[in-house]
Design goal:
The chain has one domain: Alpha-D-Glucose-1,6-Bisphosphate, Chain A, domain 4 (2-Layer Sandwich), CATH 3.30.530. 30% of the residues lie in helices and 48% in strands. It has helices spanning 14-22, 27-30, 115-144; strands spanning 2-10, 34-42, 46-53, 61-70, 75-82, 85-98, 101-112. A hairpin with a 3-residue loop joins strand 2 (34-42) and strand 3 (46-53). The protein is globular and about 45 Å long.
Length: 145
């Protein structure tokens, strides 16, 4: 299973960044490969949703995930339910450093069902991960500036 951990400092309030990441219905507006989000259910601390992903030269794929969130701890974790992967786990933690300064911890672990897809994903993983985090940073600049 491929995994990665990133820790970045962003000059916005932790709660504001948390809300941007949690607003998964808006992902198609700013994440390039996310074409649609279908929220199947939502409760006080959980969301079940499908993310329709489309990359160049590939057919669209549907990823179903169970998102758990804690507004007190400013944490969001995702448990993979079904799709083209064997497994996927993500975790976001937002740590307030100052009124408008936040340490963001992002962890991801994933494994494809097919070894060829796994090797391709690992080859481009850094680019994909950096693009995703950059998309969230740009969204924060758009909304919070």
């Amino acid at each position: 299973m491929k995994s990665s951990e990133q820790e970045i400092i962003i000059n916005y309030a932790a709660i504001d960044l948390y809300k941007i990441v949690l607003d998964i219905g808006k992902y198609p507006e700013f994440i390039p490969w996310c074409k649609e989000i279908i929220i199947k259910s939502k409760s006080k601390n959980e969301i079940l949703a499908d993310m329709i992903v489309s990359y160049k030269h590939f057919f669209p794929q549907i990823f179903t995930s169970h998102v758990f969130f804690n507004s007190n701890k400013l944490s969001i974790t995702t448990k993979y339910i079904k799709g083209p992967l064997k497994d996927l786990k993500t975790e976001w933690i937002f740590i307030k450093l100052d009124k408008k300064k936040t340490k963001v911890l992002f962890n991801i672990k994933f494994e494809f069902q097919k070894i060829l897809h796994q090797k391709l994903a690992e080859l481009f993983f850094i680019l994909i991960e950096d693009k995703m985090i950059d998309s969230f940073k740009k969204r924060a600049d758009q909304i919070l500036n």
